[in-house]
Amino acid sequence: VPEPDLAGRHVVVTAGGTREPLDPVRFLGNRSSGKQGYALARTAAARGARVTLISANAALPDPAGVDLVTVGTAEELRAAVLKAAGDADAVVMAAAVADFRPAVYATGKIKKQDDQEPAPIALVRNPDILAEISARRARPGQIVVGFAAETDDVLAHGRAKLRRKGCDLLVVNEVGERKTFGAEENEAVVLGADGSETPVPYGPKEALAETVWDLVAARLD
Ligand code: C5P
Questions:
Q1: pLDDT per position as a tens digit, 18-54
Q2: Mutate to test the pocket of ligand 1, among 130, 133, 151 (most ligand atoms within 8 A of CB)
Q3: Which atom of ligand 1 is nearest to 131's Cα?
Q4: Quick check: is 87 in a domain?
Q5: Where does CTP bind (predicted)?
Q6: Is there a binding annotation on residue 179?
């Protein structure tokens, strides 16, 4: 039985990947399975926290003992995070949020036109929710954690992203075969705004989740 070191705390976790609809049958999405976010929610609940899990398109069973909020798009995720973050001690943004969405939503299915060139899809930028909640903390001392998937120069890109986003901790994953997207295992480095660097060896997503909560718990007063 783990130490109930998050008892009395409210934590918000986002999981999965947003889908940005083009028309009633198509969307722009990503390969996030939601497994890391669900592991974060489960482990926080086991450590005594009240957990709000905001889940975007994860095909996973509902975890016991957490408040589950399901969303589809980045805008819906943003609204759910802002609402839940109001009284949260920590917000962990494990979801893969689409950076762009289609500029227009076609209410009828887009038809293929055989004799025409394919039409380009115009995109507009989605809000950066992590940067937004980091900039205006809903309560003093709130800890904000981001995730970043990188393919090269992982630490340098991670440090720059941590500064840009303004969060307290950034979990940097190296994307590769058998790692990260859809996998059961993960390998990461957790960077702290205080300059700390915590390597997490290749292993189950639960182990990475426990390390994240260790670092969060140490930063809560
Ligand atoms: O910039 P990048 O997408 O690599 O950053 C990833 C982190 O930022 C994740 O924690 C993700 O949940 C968050 N994010 C966000 N809003 C976006 C894009 C990413 O909150 N529009």
A1: 999 999 999 999 999 999 999 999 999 999 999 999 9
A2: 130
A3: 20
A4: yes
A5: 99, 109, 127-130, 147, 161, 165
A6: no
Residue 92: which CATH number? 3.40.50.10300
> Domain range for residue 31?
10-108+121-219
126 catalytic? Reply is no
Task: Give me ligand 1 centre to Cα 97, in Å.
Answer: 6
- Closest C-alpha to ligand 1, atom 2: 148
Q: CA gyration radius for the chain?
A: 18
Are residues 69 and 53 in contact, defined by beta-carbon separation less than 8 angstroms? yes
Task: State the total domains in the chain.
Answer: 1
In a domain, 115, yes or no: no
Do the domain assignments include residue 51?
A: yes
pTM, 2 dp: 0.95
165 Cα–ligand 1 center, Å: 9
Whole-angstrom CA distances from 127 to 75, 88, 98, 130 are 8, 21, 9, 9
* Residue 67 annotated in ligand binding: no
- Classify residue 2: in a domain, yes or no: no
How many Cα atoms occupy the beta-carbon half-sphere of 74 within 13 Å?
A: 20
User: Is the Cα dihedral 219, 142, 157, 73 positive or negative?
Assistant: positive
Q: Whose CA is nearest to atom 16 of ligand 1?
A: 128
Nearest atom of ligand 1 to the alpha carbon of 132: 20
Which parts of the chain sit beneath pLDDT 50? none
